[in-house]
Amino acid sequence: MIKQSRCGCRRAIGVRLTLKIVEAALTRTIKTRPPVKKEQPLIYHQPARETAFDRPRDFLGNRFVYAVISARAGGLSLGVNMNPDQRCNFDCVYCEVDRRTPARETKLVVDAMAQELRRAIIAVQQGQLRTRPWYQSLPEELLKLRHVALSGDGEPTLAANFIEAVQAVVRVRALGGFFKIVLITNGTGLDQPQVLRGLEYLTNSDEIWIKLDGGTQAFIDQVNRSDVPLEKILANILLIGRQRPVIIQSLFPAIQGEEPPFDEIKEYAQRLKELKDAGAQISLVQIYSAARPGVNAGCGHLPLRVLSQIVQTVRQTAGIRAEVF
């Protein structure tokens, strides 16, 4: 288990405070829209403000590698689209991927991805992002590369060439300087033999972020809309969490303007406690809400008040570090 020194904790707190200040400085009010007619439904997914963290992914002219300013990463994240074919076994209400539009690619081409990743890292190191309009006004703190994420338009562990992709990213790191690798997953494929073999290439400095968006099957069915049972997701979190520390990422959206019931939040916190008691090493729980423009018009962002209540419930019930992002 990775231990963090007291000074490391102070640095982490300082970074979070800095990012909150930066985000506040970047927040601007969008021009007032015309009054909405009564017969028109409210579009919950349109944010009332725009921040550095609400922007869609920027593919930088690439096929597989994109950039995004991520609150959870603490700045710039370079992502690898492991599923350009949009394959996923979840159909989350808050998903930003429009699967009504045909995918531009049918498969991750590993060699091409590795070349794109090398070029993107060089561009970041040389400050070339500043030549693109969106990045010109961002502070230097947000343009530092925080990690390379294995993520994309679907569930990365479903990629047929998962092992090859992980190996390629590790080789890029070996040739171009160290960076953290983060696997962002819904957890459903973590028990597959090829995925477990791929995870062996990750170091103790790398991270696995596993999705858990509720504590009951009924709520998971409503939010994630998947045939994969909650029991399997929890079992896979436990499987990996017993081997290495994991981070739980939990997105709670407003659905048709309604916040999640408090009883559901208590059940969610109880599931986390059960995982911890069974031996899962959960280093952090990331609580956040829908921010980037999604496909579902009835899905929106929860107020900070509600997200903070969820964090407090997790801390008090499970005794696990939790933060709002």
Q: What is the count of distinct domains? A: 1
How much helicity do the residues have?
Answer: 25-40%
Q: CATH-wise, what's the superfamily? A: Aldolase class I
Strand content: 15-25%
SSE class: alpha/beta
Number of helices: 8
Strand numbers in spatial order across the main sheet = 3-4-5-6-7-8-10-12
Tell me what the CATH architecture is. Alpha-Beta Barrel
Q: Please summarize the sheet with the most strands.
A: 8 strands, mixed
- Arithmetic mean of pLDDT: 87
Poorly predicted regions are 1-15, 17-49
- Report the order of strands and helices: HEEEEHEHEHEHHEEHEEHE
Task: Characterize the structure shown.
With 325 residues, this protein is an alpha/beta fold. It has a single domain, classed as TIM Barrel, CATH 3.20.20.70. It is 34% helix and 17% strand. The chain is built from 8 helices and 12 strands. An 8-stranded mixed β-sheet has the order 3-4-5-6-7-8-10-12, covered by helices on one side. Strands 1-2 form a two-stranded antiparallel sheet. The protein has a two-stranded antiparallel ribbon with strand order 9-11. A hairpin with a 4-residue loop joins β3 and β4. α2 packs parallel to α3, α3 runs parallel beside α4 and α7 runs parallel beside α8. It is globular, with a radius of gyration of 19 Å. The N terminus is likely disordered.
